[in-house]
Write a structure and sequence with these properties.
The structure holds two protein chains of two kinds. By secondary structure, chain A is α/β, with parallel strands linked by helices. Chain A has twelve helices and eight strands. Chain A is globular. Chain B has eleven helices and 13 strands. Chain B has helices spanning 29-46, 49-63, 73-79, 98-111, 125-137, 147-152, 154-162, 177-191, 208-216, 218-231, 246-252, and strands at 16-17, 22-23, 69-71, 85-87, 116-121, 140-146, 166-170, 195-198, 237-241, 261-266, 290-294, 297-301, 342-345. A four-stranded parallel sheet of chain B has the order 7-6-5-8, sandwiched between helices. Mean pLDDT of chain B is 89; it is low at 1-11 and 332-355. The chains are: A alpha/beta, B alpha/beta. Bound molecules: pyridoxal-5'-phosphate (PLP).
């Protein structure tokens, strides 16, 4: 197991339950000792998200969580784990790389995860962001064969052990489909893929999509990979459960 | 993909169009390999005489092609024109041009060994066409349709079910075509090992815009031959409507390179404000479309200042969509490109004339 092993990578949607709640949620996450957290920047058409995150994005947008307001709210989060900004291309593309970088500077954002941006589609945009310190997280899906994975990992390279987890890890998508934890995820196939990917790269791996219960999270952790918990946390926060209360039993 | 099309030999397969670099493949990683596989299968099929023959035979015997070109002299006189011809895609089996593409993609899916079909539909015409093609070829069919469209196009919902399709209501957003495409893309990500997604218009990630255009150009090829036969000359103009742009490209592409005017008409809706129309091109720069990314491609998109997709409005469910397919665009002065047409909006105040 790498020394940089991060026990859990939670996801929450900025603006849900409210932007005002964001600093408190991030400082709770920091107090739990987490290295990193994914923060969703809500988009109107989240084509890779299931019902829970769709609804969270809609609530956030309805509540006025525009991209600029989200980034301004993040800038006000003094106590926070490293943030991976999780979103879709169009809101970022409309800001443009230069303006986006200016808005990111005062925030704890260390990397971007843009679901609908393959690494060859906006090379200038991506390079400008990477050079400014905002690399894109590579995604490896069940449909990504090892040959393709090798290329993806090379084109979105690991900056090396000196860099924080947020900038190093690759995201292994646990199953076909969209985010959400309603159906239980069969862990056997993703376990095999993780083992195969270990042969390609030393970088830290996170495994997500459909994980929520403490047992699955613990199983993923035993492989030396960081489990991601998204929809289940968003659902809990919406139901009024606190972040610390929900994550604590999921940390070991 | 610009980087990888070594197999695109005899057939060039553009994935970007025009100076604005419209098109591309902005898809989640889960769908990338399925899209690459689809591109390869499409190129192989187009180059395979057996596939071409099968498609041609089915277009004749099942779809009912060629469709007539009907002169409409009374309407022409009313409009002050010498002549007006209607290309009768309404006389295909299931009643719209959508079947040309749906059937061809269903044949392709079968070749790829995919027995499950996913589709979206707006007006319901693409859903009905896909349901019919699946019934013809023995494929299972699930169609995603917005709840607003299901209510206003109820007869088409009944027809899809009659052909044995499952119609899944999509309640999010304004319950129209955009939300149906979202949900179909999500469903495909979950079933892409077993299912093919038959996208109904010339939009979405590469290779869909090129593939749908290719399967629809039969409209314009027939129309060109028919107008020359009936009139003995080229028309002065060709006109089509554009939701996503598939019938527009299908009709206009074979007329590219001739000296005539090409028009695509988009939905004027009921007002000039964002959300009151689907006029992406004709209002470009005046609250109309701005370059953006939706549903896997970069194109002119009706969106708010934050990059969220705008709502749209039209009395026509088939035109009620915020993005124009990336291959259909206003030609830039002095530039000949893959785009088809000048664009105008319908509705009150819609002007005619070349752009
Ligand atoms: C009869 C008919 N025409 C046109 C359209 C618009 O689509 P496209 O622009 O792809 O031809 C539709 C879409 O549903 C349709 O049903």
């Amino acid at each position: 197991m790498e020394p940089t092993m991060n026990p859990l990578l939670p996801f929450l949607m900025a603006g849900d339950p409210s932007l005002a709640a964001l600093p408190g949620l991030l400082s709770e996450a920091k107090a739990l000792g987490l290295d990193a957290i994914e923060v969703g920047l809500p988009h109107s058409d989240p084509i890779a998200d299931g019902p829970v995150l769709q609804a969270a994005a809609q609530r956030a947008i309805a509540d006025g969580a525009t991209p600029i307001k989200v980034l301004e709210a993040l800038a006000a989060c003094a106590e926070s784990p490293d943030v991976i900004l999780f979103t879709y291309l169009n809101p970022l593309f409309q800001l443009g790389a230069e303006r986006l970088i200016g808005l990111l500077r005062p925030t704890p954002v260390k990397a971007l995860l843009v679901v609908d941006l393959p690494d060859d589609q906006e090379p200038d945009f991506e390079r400008t962001l990477r050079d400014a310190g905002y690399p894109m997280v590579p995604l490896l899906a069940p449909t990504t064969d090892l040959e393709r994975a090798k290329g993806l990992l090379a084109r979105r390279p690991d900056p090396g052990p000196g860099a924080p987890f947020a900038q190093r890890f690759a995201y292994v998508v646990a199953r076909l489909g969209v985010t959400g934890s309603d159906q239980a995820t069969d862990l056997a196939p993703v376990r095999e893929r993780v083992a195969a990917l270990r042969g390609l790269s030393e970088r830290p791996l996170a495994v997500g999509f459909g994980l929520g219960d403490p047992a699955s999270l613990a199983a993923v952790r035993r492989w030396g990979t960081t489990p991601v918990v998204g929809s289940a946390l968003v659902k809990a926060l919406a139901a009024g459960t606190g972040l610390t209360g929900f994550l604590t039993p999921r940390l070991t | 993909m610009t980087h990888a099309a070594p197999h695109a030999t005899a057939f060039t397969l553009p994935d970007r169009f025009g100076t604005a670099e419209f098109g591309g493949c902005y898809a989640p990683e889960t769908l990338m390999q399925p899209l690459l596989d689809l591109e390869a299968a499409f190129v192989a099929a187009v180059e395979d005489p057996a596939f071409q023959l099968e498609l041609k035979t089915e277009l004749r015997n099942f779809v009912g092609r060629p469709t007539p070109l009907t002169p409409a002299p009374r309407l022409a006189a009313r409009l002050g024109l010498d002549a007006l011809y209607l290309k009768r895609e309404d006389l295909t089996h299931t009643g719209a041009h959508k079947i040309n593409n749906a059937l061809a993609q269903a044949l392709l899916a079968k070749r790829m060994g995919k027995a499950e079909i996913i589709a979206e539909t707006g007006a319901g015409q693409h859903g009905v066409a896909t349901a019919a093609a699946c019934a013809r070829l023995g494929l299972s069919c699930t169609v995603y349709m917005g709840v607003t469209d299901m209510a206003r196009q109820a007869p088409n919902v009944a027809r899809m079910r009659m052909f044995g399709a499952t119609v899944v209501p999509v309640a999010s957003g304004q319950g129209t075509l955009k939300e149906a495409v979202n949900e179909a893309l999500r469903a495909w990500a979950g079933r892409c090992d077993a299912a093919h997604y038959i996208l109904g218009s010339a939009l979405g990630p590469h290779p869909f815009p090129t593939m749908v255009r290719t399967f629809q150009t039969v409209i314009g090829e027939e129309a060109l031959a028919q107008v020359l036969e009936q009139r003995g000359a080229l028309p002065d103009a060709v006109i089509a409507c554009a939701g996503g742009g598939s019938n527009g490209l299908g009709l206009l592409v074979p007329f590219l390179g001739y000296r005539l005017r090409r028009f695509v008409v988009e939905a004027g809706g009921h007002g000039d404000g964002l959300g009151e129309h689907a006029a992406r091109v004709s209002r470009e720069g005046q609250g109309g479309g701005r370059v953006g990314v939706l549903h896997g491609c970069k194109t002119l998109l009706l969106q708010d200042e934050h990059g969220h997709t705008a709502e749209t409005a039209s009395i026509s469910a088939g035109l009620d969509y915020p993005a124009l397919g990336p291959r259909t665009r206003r030609p830039r002065p002095g530039r000949e490109g893959g785009g088809a047409a000048g664009l105008r909006r319908d509705g009150a105040g819609g002007r005619e004339g070349p752009v």
